[in-house]
Amino acid sequence: MEITAYLDMQKKRVDKALEALFERELSREYGRLAEGIRYSLLAGGKRIRPVLALAAIEAVGGDGESLLPLTLPLELVHTYSLVHDDLPAMDNDDLRRGRPTNHVVYGEAAAILAGDALLTHAFTLLSDPVYDKVLPASRRMEVVHELSSASGLCGMVGGQFLDIVSEGKNLTLPELENLHRHKTGALLRASVRIGGILAGASSEWVEALTRYGEAVGIAFQIADDLLDVLGTAEELGKAAQKDAGKSKNTYPGLVGIDRARILAEEKCREAHEAVAVFGSKGEPLARIASYIIERRN
Ligand code: GRG
Fold it and tell me: In angstroms, what is the span from residue 134 Cα to ligand 1's centroid?
């Protein structure tokens, strides 16, 4: 199966499960707040984090069907981070996935609360005794630890702060890498580790998934920066291409477009090497790594 068909199939499974989750658990009694949650949670998005978790489950021979609901908290946390990242106090963005951002449609207070509700619901879900039949509470507790530490001070939240305080400063390459390891890398790394933990993988296998997740986290960010720069350059015209991105702390801004591409390829190779241990079962993970550096959105 083509990787795009595989990703599309997995995304559809995740979308369906998210839709059901919303109907079942995210009560619609709360009017505009619930509408806002639905607006951000169910509108597009590649669902790459739960899809990575599902591919990790597959790599270690776990049951992706029964464990699927326990990968959804990754998307809840990701969606919260995007809603809060777009707020006026953060990036102040008006558009996300081609549509007005949550606070533009529902107002700032409702957007803050929608983000809060999405974040907390991730942990309501993981700690819900209804999943005792699927996975023992002690294993779900490991996932709670993994997800909360990747999202919090020593992960995404810390990274977001590093990003905010580095605005206007020229970062070195190691500083930029540290920022992204936290801001976007931590949740991507946690996605595959969570897949492994859910499926009861050995510590060696979780270690292999960790190496994969770390490499993919950096590759994902470089690809995102390149998309940004090339998109901007397209808008500005060819002449501006080599200067595009230079005013921002981005990989192409720091090392140039060509070197950034080489770096992304290096990370992709590292990711492939890490999952070789899973043989053919690790193929979807390997192909997702390649897709991430070649993607166009
Ligand atoms: C507000 C605590 C807090 C954190 C925000 C992740 C993040 C931290 C901000 C997002 C800023 C951003 C655009 C980073 C670039 C990489 C990235 C995470 C892109 C968006 O993720 P995708 O491509 O989005 O997975 P979709 O739309 O597919 O869900």
Answer: 30
If one counts every other C-beta atom within 10 angstroms of the C-beta of residue 132, the result is 10
Give CA separation, 114 vs 24, 36, 37, in Å. Answer: 17, 6, 5
- Ligand 1 atom, smallest distance to 85 CA: 1
CATH fold of 3-294, please?
A: Farnesyl Diphosphate Synthase (1.10.600)
| Distance from residue 202's CA to the centre of ligand 1 (Å) | 30
d(CA 136, CA 297): 38
Annotated domain spans of the chain: 3-294
Q: At what angle do helices 72-85 and 186-198 cross, to 10 degrees?
A: 170
Over residues 205-211, mean pLDDT: 98
Q: pTM for the complete prediction? A: 0.93
Q: Looking at residue 30, what is its pLDDT?
A: 75
At 44, is the secondary structure helix, strand, or coil?
coil
